[in-house]
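Example: (S)-mandelate dehydrogenase MdlB.
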Amino acid sequence: MGAGAIHSAEDARRLARRRLPWMVFDYIDGAAGQETGAARNRAALDAITLRPRILRDVSQRSLATSIFGAEADRPFGIAPMGMCNLSAPGADLMLARLAARYRVPHGVSTVASTSLETLLEATEGYAWFQLYFSGDGTGTFNLAERARAAGYQTLVLTVDVPEVGRRPRELRHGFKMPFRIGPRQFIDFALHPRWSLTTLLKGKPVMANFQMEGYDFDRTQSRARATWDTLARLRDHWPGKLVVKGVLDVEDARALVSAGVDAIQISSHGARQLEAAPAPIEMLAKIRADLGPTFPVFYDSGIRSGEDVLKAITMGADFVFLGRILQYAIAARGEAGLEQLWDALTEELSIAMAQTGSVSLRH
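Written out as structure tokens, the predicted fold is:
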């Protein structure tokens, strides 16, 4: 591997920053407000230490686990992310192929740039559909029905975006979907010709799930009308597994269990929503302690390494989801970069398991 090789998530981010237009990089990389929430979560993850153990036979280690009864070759999967094809043309399909190869969930966003049907097929069934409630909910329930008809078994309702958080780095560029290309954006694209030529020649990324829905999804539209009654309706409507993503409160977690959801996902939306939110990794430990050891609890937000994955599992996560670092890798080196980062995360986790005397991640 040469100078452009990816040995860590930070390598991927550094290369992505160089190659992406500023507008796109800041959309992927940015967080709410002055980004103290992102810093708080990073500090909380950094403060967690693992327990080194010695003289144990750790020569045969397994990174496999199970999720909803299905075997997974890694304890980490792909979080739902909107408009991944901004990082490179075909990014959604690169992620889908990775999910199929390692039998891990690929979260397909409501605002994915590839249709939910295409991605379910490309993942060979290892796809979960992520749903946003918006407007009066009509379109939301139509999409849930469409996902069911396509063959999705798991639905992920994201609940931490009643209003879209203000992300100044994104706002300063006038970022909008679909793109509105004014003089500032034109200069930005012109200064990043590799991205511009490959991306724009293949057609601007679009919100693919709405090309046949008969209405446009406005990512800034209020989602504030969703209530516990909305969740109850969705639970009645959806026959498969239902995950609620974006939980950062013990009382809310308890209420979700009572509401009959199948799992909760501790998340701050990658610190993109409420700047003053608590560090999700700290809330993971509190929620796990409150719910006990058996209820499925997943985690995302701020994961940057295999050791971070092990920290989340140690704090009580049954499964961990990765987000923007995968987009960095794709932006940096395409599918080869994604595979390099995935291998690096795998090796980091495996080595950390050896150092802590662990041979298995199964509970």
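The first strand starts at residue 65 and ends at 67.
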